[in-house]
Amino acid sequence: MRAFIQIALIAIVSYLALLLGPWWTIAVVGFAIGYALPGRVSFVSGFVAIALVWLVKAWLQDSSIPTSLSAQVAGVMHMSTAIIYLATVLVGGLVGGFATMTGSLLRGRKTIRY
Amino acid sequence: MRLIKFSASLIFTLVLIFVLNNRWVVGGLGVPPMGRFLDPFHGFWNNAAPANSDDFALKIDGISRPISISFDSLSIPHIFAENDEDLYFAQGYITARHRLWQMEFQTHAAAGRISEILGAGPNNAILDYDRNQRRLGMTFGAMHALEVAKQNEAMMKVIEAYTAGVNAYIASLDYEDLPFEYKLLDYAPEPWTPLKCVLLMKSMAQTLNMSDKDVQMTNALKLFGKDMVALLYPDREQVGDAIVEKTGQWNFQAPSMDSIPPALPDELIAISGLAVADPNIGSNNWAVSGTRTATGAPILCNDPHLDLTLPSIWYVAHLSAPGVNAMGATLPGAPCVVIGFNDSIAWGVTNAQRDLVDWYAIEFNADKSKYKLDDQWVDTRIVIENLKVRDRADFTDSVMYTHWGPVPYDNHFRAESARKHFAFRWIAHDGSEELLTFYQLNRASNHADYMAALDHFSSPAQNFAFASVSGDIAMRIQGKFPVRRPLEGKFVIDGTRSSNGWQAFIPTRENVMYKNPPRGFVSSANQYPADSTYPYYITASSYEAYRNRRINDVLRADSSVTVEDMMALQNDTYNLKASENLAMLLTALDPATMSESEKKASDVLRGWDFQNSIQSEAAVYFEAWLSNLYPLIWDEIYDAKVPLSRPTAYQTFHLIATNPTLSFFDVASTAEKETAGDVIRMAFRKGVADVEEWRSEHGAELQWADYKDTYVEHLARQEALSRHVEHGGNYDNVDASGHRHGPSWRMIVSLEPGGIVAYGVYPGGQDGNIGSPHYDDLLDDWAAGRYFRLSFTTQPADPSTSITITLNPAAK
């Protein structure tokens, strides 16, 4: 349950933060929520939250136009469309995951109960 | 323990962010900053641009009154401003909105600066490209043009307003708004400048003037002798009508001048990678008088054949303000409409081909610090060119400038001789005011205005077709042309005497021109400009021999032309070269010795209707045959170790027909002595073999469009952003669509008294953004020969198919 709340919170806050800040604000959000609401599986929460937000947003962008943006960019990068999506999810997920874990580690286990 | 874990995790996170926030070079390839690039909120995903449906307004600095800009269903902007400065500000702003990356990339390329963005390239190919641009003096010429522009206050205001508009757009951009290419290559746009506007004109001059072949002709003269040069490379091929025929009616005389001897060097000129423009670049334009059209109104047509690229070389715009209401093709990066129409007139251009480039042999002293001119030693001027190269130290080049101009090729660059050097004299090095011509044409209301506007045009020399609602048609070949002495400019010239230079220019009203000729139409397709009684000597690298005759034949045959007829003519794939020569070629074949596939090919060719249509199988065999014929005949030229130029297709066929035992028909690499018939047979065999090989590789049905493969390439040569289209035609067809070049803008304007009716299409789309539906939305229509009726009303556009942006002045 705690993990679920953590994921939902990171996802919502990072979505809003990304409307204003640069890409690495996901790390700030992950770190802050990891600190404020630490969990046993903070890395996974941060990873899943950001990966999900980035995947959904990328898919929404891609499907908002009749031509395929991802396929063209994948061609430029000499990779498949699936790999472009995977890379997006991984990059967002890893930064989100590690940032959330870092925040969680700063707070420590003691404060899990409140 | 917890602190250690925390620190490790923190450091790892920060390192990860650092790595993903920066560009890295991996195995020689630049990898964009993956965090920024892949972030779907700001990175490339954000370049998905859904068709906008809502009007919106912006407050903006730098304009004095509100400006309304409606984009129609093709995303063509219709700009309505209340004064000139606001109009050109808006043109700059809106063009940048659609084409910023292209504008900057093309001007960087013109100035020799793309290594800054792309690095030196494999084998320094990109750096060498830049060095060549610097050494040809592109910016040197543009600076002179800017000096002239600055003397005309009104014109400078236009250029500055356009520049301010582009810069206002650039200033509005954050990373997430940047065009895709900036994100991919990880750099940011720099401010636009007036110099860039004029640089574009010089870049066009480079495209259109650099098929010059003085060096090649000098080598030919040394290798083959004077008589053979006259036979292979005549000044005028005796075929077709000149652009302007008015025999005996040129009521002026050319001044007489002493002839100059060509400087025939004692050794051949060896320059590797001598810059040569593609000889297949050309254009068509014509205007038909109202006496020969179905509606009684004149019709003007134009299709310039240039590189087929994405984004396209042209951007269509409608510019309206008090005193001007013009529409047509603009060059992204320069103000005004270049090819188009207004309420009263229409105009179109083709290249004049004339020789506007000369090479002067320079006699330097031992350390090249001085060179000889009129028996004196004159100081060489050294210009240091500093080239920024991405991921590498800067490269410094020094270029020697002489009285004549720069010396592009020396012992540091491409010239293989350390002693022989040639200075480069090019009309585009001179100050000029082409933009003023377009500014005035945009406002012209009759033939006299058109004439006055053209007086300002120097380079690249163009054949300007004209038609007016009031019923006039005209053609004028306008440029700044040196008065040439016979043979001057064909070969390299002795540069030790200043009297060997250009002594005078043809007075602008003595250029080739006429109005309302009796035949009822004017036309040009890069052919020879004037009948033989024109008083001035004319020379060029070559003139066109086929398209022009086909166009004139069609126009002569139809005394009641319609817009649809004109569409058909622009898309005409009739192969005149084939219809003239195929029978002669086929006669040389020997059915007894042919293989099955060769027999089939010859049968297909015999039944051909001479159309290079999409489906044509015969066109494949014919073009494959010719592709093998030229290298066999001109092997002495193709295989030479020094630059040489191949005679034209027309002259090749002329020699086959009239001189079949000419020594060139012998293939040098064989023991036998071949004649024209032998090489025709050899070329046929090789051509059929090429076609069979293509068929086995592609496994597809053999059809011309697939074999030719019209390829519209992205400017940064990204294949995934380029497009292949099925389209007929070929070089020398009226529809001159080859593999990489072709009609870059097709325009048809019917100048009806009730209002202009105009059609246009081009192989691309208005928006340079790969995520926009307008990136390539005109391409299929272009390929299918379809046109769009260009909306040219002063009323606000239909709100159901258009969106309107209002630019409001920011409160002071």
* Major sheet characteristics of chain A: none
Number of helices of chain A: 5
Helix/strand class of chain A: mainly alpha
Oligomeric assembly: heterodimer
Amount of beta strand of chain B: 15-25%
Q: Largest protein interface?
A: A-B, 39 and 39 residues
How would you sum up the major sheet of chain B? 11 strands, mixed
Strand order of the largest sheet of chain B: 3-30-4-5-9-10-11-12-19-20-22
Structural commentary:
The complex is a heterodimer of chains A (114) and B (812). Chain A has helices at residues 2-20, 25-36, 42-63, 69-76, 81-107. Chain A has 114 residues and is mainly alpha-helical. In chain A, α1 (2-20) packs antiparallel against α2 and α1 crosses α3 (42-63). The model of chain A has no long low-confidence stretch (mean pLDDT 92). In chain B, the strands form 7 sheets. In chain B, strands 3-30-4-5-9-10-11-12-19-20-22 form an 11-stranded mixed sheet. In chain B, strands 6, 7, 23, 26, 27, 28 and 29 form a 7-stranded antiparallel sheet that branches. In chain B, β16 (381-387) and β17 form a beta hairpin. Chain B is α+β, with helices and mostly antiparallel strands and 812 residues long. The chains are: A mainly alpha (114), B alpha+beta (812).
Short account of what is shown:
Chain A has 114 residues and is an all-alpha fold. Chain A has helices at residues 2-20, 25-36, 42-63, 69-76, 81-107. Chain B is α+β, with helices and mostly antiparallel strands and 812 residues long.
